[in-house]
Automatic annotation (TrEMBL):
Catalysed reaction, written as an equation: L-seryl-[protein] + ATP = O-phospho-L-seryl-[protein] + ADP + H(+); L-threonyl-[protein] + ATP = O-phospho-L-threonyl-[protein] + ADP + H(+); L-tyrosyl-[protein] + ATP = O-phospho-L-tyrosyl-[protein] + ADP + H(+)
Native organism taxonomy: Eukaryota, Metazoa, Ecdysozoa, Arthropoda, Hexapoda
The keyword Nucleotide-binding is annotated on this UniProt entry: yes
EC number: 2.7.12.1
Organism of provenance: Photinus pyralis (Common eastern firefly)
Name of this chain's protein: Dual serine/threonine and tyrosine protein kinase
Keywords per UniProt: ATP-binding, Cytoplasm, Kinase, Nucleotide-binding, Serine/threonine-protein kinase, Transferase, Tyrosine-protein kinase
Length: 887
């Protein structure tokens, strides 16, 4: 038995070694991302905050597993340890122990250390004479060792089979329970397997001690071991009810004390009733359920199970954390490449849109300026005419207002010419401005909203990249300069104001004779006359021309400013897009495969620890890259199949890792074969070449096999619908399968189909234009490297040909080719499978549409499915009518 415990330690250290390698690679890869990619800061920040990597490094690189022995007394602890080591190494009747550590050594050795590190030269009894059992006095704490800080440790090295595989046994000093928390703080460098040895019911001190241990090691289970001295004890009659209350124990040979102790532990919530009889644990991380109690009769078995389970908890905990990091990184990469692909595609369109829209705006504004000139003349004429007619009223109103607001004396002493000019300019300016504001307001609606958003988006990306806002400033200036797009009352006023300024300048430039001298006093009739003269002297057409010219000038200069800003923006963006494309390629070719491989390794380790190595039986299929075997139920999947792949080189490892990631991460779907997990078999090929075992649900056969044996028309149609559903699902997840073919459609016992083999399946954004697939199913554009998800529609067209033909022979027109190059040349020229006499018009038509040369001409799958369903429905009706006629 105890060799089984050693084996568990050995297995654990092997897994830890694998984890250490993965962890090292992960840290290197994360550093690499940090240096070379401008993405993922957010999620790295998360890992940093929680310090996942740091904690894993600590666990894997600085900690050693050890059996940590607590107990009710030194006596029980000694009994237990002696039993484990199969020798009386510790004295049974002693107390007041200091730290004791037992580990493997070629020869027996004993020494005293401070905090397990510095040897203390001490006159140990064991050094004075030969010993079998450690002298009591060497174990005993001295008076100076009264606290956890000052406690020394007795290091004992033994040549024991049990300790050989780096099994360490550690016994904390038996301080009172109040000191235990401090003692446990010293244990930061071990991964404990926690044992609590008892030989009688627990008192308050023990209970307190156990609570402290539970608190300190929340994620870990405790194995309570009841060491009995006298073998089987029978229960006295008053204790019978306890046994009856625990009926499942009736048949076992348990001591009286054991039953009582068990009852107490259950009542205290330290163990659960239902796991006490041993067996496998079901819930790896939940210690409440996993604490165990064992007596010395069942100890051998339970101890191995317990050690295995504790190590399983450690390994699952560490590997799932690593796997989480890898999968998060990959998810982030894929999302980022989606964003990048979109950005790369959309930015030139945005620039084009901004240029076209601004050009339209410019044309419209210039047109307005031209057209408005006549309108402006009319407006100015009619305003002047109105003013002439109402000159007296205008003056009276003006002076009334002046007198209401100020003192009349002052207003009559103002320079009269300035006042009158002001009145005229106000009236004219307002009339002209209102007109322009209305026209521009209408343009604002048509152009500037979307244009502005588009420009903001372009400039935002530039800001992201360089913190450079020049383009944005220029664009904003263009919009405001071009037409003060914010046509609210305040800006309308500013337009009016600016036109009045221009008009004033214009009037001044005439140097009219009626410009009055300052301080001159004038009567009302003189003022009226002056107004009339002024109004007569203004040329409405000249005024309109000036307004219009100035208007055009503003528009033109703004347009030029816009174009200059756009050129600079374009320049910045093209640099940014180039860098983005480089990063996209780096992610696709380098980082995503690297993390996919790490994810495959960490997730496979999780699966191996949790479910063990899958047990393969007979071969059920063989592909280009792997062999598929039937397999014993694994991970809750029954029936099960294992695809065993031995990637010959890094490229194949990467492809397989990406396949694994995509298959594993897409949510379950009835039309997709479920991948349950994976395991890496490092022992494969004598340990020279690792094999990856992908474990999935086992199907009955593939469609190739189904068609070769013959399937009814209705079943074949249902399979076609299933395939379309499967592809639609993949596309909805942003994935392209790229290898739809008969052997990748698997059938269950009811001939319902599911898609499998995601070796070439890839997110659309990560596609690089690699030429992959099976020759006859490959769309012509695949060879050019520029393609999208519609290659799956093409492949379905060919698959549907086989489905309708109900056979697996190549189409006749393809049979003649000697190699795939000849086939592709002809397919590129438009050669397609021949129409067989059994094909209905509807089916042939659908095939032809699916394999159209131009991807744009292929129907969306959302359209294909109802067509197939209609054909299926008709076939069902025909079949039932046929049956009725036969009857
Ligand atoms: N889950 C499964 N259940 C039952 N049979 C399967 C399963 N997976 C694969 N097979 C059988 O094993 C064969 C080989 O499958 P595999 O995925 O290795 O290769 P392939 O798709 O035929 O070819 P390639 O390796 O070129 O993609 C399949 O054709 C199928 O008959």
């Amino acid at each position: 038995m105890l060799t089984s415990v050693s084996q568990e330690f050995r297995k654990f250290s092997r897994h830890c070694y694998t984890l250490r390698m993965i962890l090292k690679d992960t840290s290197r890869s994360l550093e690499d991302i940090q240096c070379n990619l401008s993405l993922g800061e957010e999620f790295r920040e998360n890992f940093r905050k929680e310090n996942v990597i740091g904690r894993l490094q600590h666990m894997l690189e600085e900690c050693l597993p050890a059996v940590l022995v607590f107990g009710q007394s030194c006596h029980v602890k000694a009994t237990f340890i002696n039993y484990m080591l199969d020798q009386t190494i510790l004295p049974l009747n002693s107390s007041g122990w200091r730290w004791v550590r037992l580990s493997y050594g070629h020869t027996k050795e004993i020494r005293l250390t401070l905090m397990h590190e510095y040897e203390i030269l001490d006159n140990l009894q064991a050094h004075q004479r030969p010993w079998v059992t450690v002298p009591e006095s060497d174990l005993k704490r001295t008076e100076q060792e009264s606290t956890a800080d000052s406690c020394q440790a007795l290091e004992i090295k033994l040549n024991s089979a049990f300790l050989k595989d780096k099994v360490n046994i550690l016994v904390p000093p038996d301080y009172p329970s109040e000191c235990l928390s401090d003692t446990l703080k010293d244990l930061i460098h071990i991964l404990p397997v926690i044992i609590y040895v008892v030989d009688e019911s627990l008192n308050d001190c023990h209970i307190q001690e156990i609570r402290i241990i539970k608190e300190a090691y929340q994620d870990l289970p405790i194995l309570f071991i009841n060491m009995t001295k006298n073998g089987i004890e029978t229960l006295s009659p008053p204790e019978q009810p306890i046994l009856r209350a625990l009926p499942h124990l009736k048949n076992d040979k348990f001591s009286k004390k054991y039953i009582l102790l068990k009852n107490q532990l259950i009542n205290l919530g330290f163990i659960r009733d239902n796991v006490m009889n041993g067996g496998e644990f079901t819930q790896p991380f939940c210690t409440e359920y996993n604490n165990m109690l064992s007596n010395d009769y069942e100890f051998n078995d339970k101890f191995v199970i317990f050690v295995r389970h504790t190590f399983k908890s450690y390994l699952l905990n560490m590997s799932s954390k690593l796997s989480m990091i890898h999968n998060e990184c990959l998810k982030n990469f894929i999302l980022r490449t989606f964003d990048m692909a979109r950005e790369i595609q959309i930015t030139p369109q945005r620039i084009k849109y901004a240029q076209i829209t601004e050009a339209g705006l410019y044309r419209a504004l210039m047109e307005i300026a031209g057209k408005k000139q006549e309108e402006l003349v009319r407006i100015i004429q009619s305003t002047l005419h109105d003013m002439k007619l109402n000159a007296k009223q205008i003056l009276e109103d003006y002076y009334c207002e002046e007198m209401d607001g100020n003192n009349s004396h002052q207003s009559f002493t103002k320079p009269v010419s300035t006042e009158i000019q002001q009145i005229i300019l106000n009236k004219l300016g307002n009339a002209v401005a209102i007109q322009l504001v209305q026209s521009v307001g209408c343009l604002h609606e048509n152009f500037t909203g979307t244009l502005q958003r588009c420009l903001e988006n372009l400039e935002k990306n530039c800001k992201d990249q360089d913190g450079n806002v020049l383009a944005s400033d220029a664009v904003k200036k263009i919009i405001t300069a071009a037409y003060s797009i914010e046509l609210k009352s305040s800006s309308s006023f500013s337009i009016a104001h600016s036109f009045m300024e221009r008009l004033r300048n214009f009037i001044h430039s005439f140097q009219l004779p009626w410009v009055a001298h300052s301080q001159q006093q004038y009567d009302f009739s003189w003022r009226l006359q002056t107004v009339t003269n002024m109004l007569d002297s203004l040329s409405s057409s000249k005024l309109a021309k000036t307004v219009s010219a100035q208007f055009q000038e503003v528009v033109r200069s703004s347009h030029e400013a816009f174009q200059a800003a756009m050129r600079s923006l374009e320049h910045q963006l093209s640099g940014k897009l180039e860098r983005m494309e480089e990063q996209r390629i780096a992610i696709r070719k380098q980082y995503a495969p690297r993390f996919a491989r790490l994810a495959l390794e960490s997730t496979s380790l999780c699966d191996l620890v949790q479910w063990g190595m899958p047990i393969q039986s007979k071969e059920i299929g063989r592909g280009q890259y792997g062999v598929v075997f039937a397999c014993e139920p694994w991970g809750g999947i029954d029936p099960c199949a294992v695809k065993s792949v031995v990637p010959p080189d890094d490229r194949h490892w990467n492809d397989l890792a990406m396949e694994f990631y995509h298959t594993r991460t897409i949510a379950e779907h009835p039309r997709i074969v479920k991948l349950r997990g994976s395991v890496i078999d490092h022992q494969y090929g004598g340990g020279f070449s690792a094999a990856v075992l992908l474990v999935m649900e086992r199907m009955n056969r593939d469609l190739y096999c189904g068609l070769r044996n013959g399937l009814s028309w209705l079943i074949r149609l249902q399979i076609a619908i299933d395939v379309i559903e499967g592809i639609r699902y993949l596309h909805s997840q942003g994935l392209v399968h790229r290898d739809i073919k008969l052997k990748n459609v698997l059938l269950d016992n009811n001939n319902r189909a599911k898609l499998t083999d995601f070796g070439f399946c890839i997110p659309e954004a990560m596609m690089s234009g690699s030429i992959v697939g099976t020759p006859v199913h490959m769309a012509p554009e695949l060879l050019s490297g520029h393609y999208d998800s519609s290659v799956d529609v093409y492949a379905f067209g060919i698959l549907f040909w086989y489905i309708c033909a109900n056979q697996v022979r190549l189409p006749y027109v393809f049979e003649q080719f000697l190699n795939k190059e000849q086939l592709w040349t002809s397919v590129r020229r438009g050669l397609r499978p021949e129409c067989l006499p059994i094909f209905s018009k509807g089916c042939w038509n659908l095939m032809e549409r699916c394999w159209a040369a131009d991807p744009e001409d292929r129907p969306p799958l959302g359209e294909v499915q109802p067509i197939l369903e209609a054909i299926w429905y008709k076939a069902t009706m025909d079949t039932s009518i046929g049956k009725i006629i036969k009857l």
